[in-house]
Amino acid sequence: MLYAILCYNDEDLVWSWTKEEDDAVMGRLALVHERLGEKLGPAARLLPTTAATTLRKSSEPIVIDGPFAETKEQLLGFYVIEVENLDAALDVAHQLTAANPGGAYEIRPIALFLPDKRVPDKRVIEQRAPEKRVP
Question: Model-level pTM?
Fold first, then answer.
């Protein structure tokens, strides 16, 4: 089962780290990545929200600089993992927390959407109401 682990933290704190502090955290995270092996898929570290551009959806879409909302913690990156279940995903999140304390990790199941294929998580299918068939 695929899960996304969304990494939230105070970007002012994280981006104020010295190169040595940042290298130390990245080194600890690299060890977690090595231990996880094939369970860990793509990981992305996002640049600060000051580098963001937002497209606000409305009848006339508006492009604005910066994040959509002012919040205490920002989305700083994410991991994609493939594990057996939510408990295993939480175990990965605990390992990441030990390597990079502070902030929060949000774990969400992923339903892949590919242009001509939709590969939903089986649990999502089971939670849907039965489809009505039209004769």
Answer: 0.73
Please report how many Cα atoms fall inside a 13 Å half-sphere around the Cα of residue 16, on the Cβ side: 5
Summarize the chain as % helix, strand, coil (round to 5). Answer: 35, 30, 35
Count of alpha carbons within 13 angstroms of residue 87, beta-carbon side: 0
Tokens 């242009």: give the residue. 115
Gap between the Cα atoms of 70 and 47, Å rounded: 16
The yes/no answer on whether domain 2-43+74-127 falls in CATH 3.30.70.1060 is yes
Place of tokens 């939903």: 120
Question: What confidence category does residue 81 fall into, taking pLDDT thresholds of 50, 70 and 90?
Answer: very high
- The pLDDT tens digits of the residues spanning 19-63 come to 999 999 999 999 999 999 888 888 888 988 888 887 777 788 778
**CB 79, CB 46: distance < 8 Å:** no
Helix residue spans in 4-85 (DSSP H): 11-14, 19-36
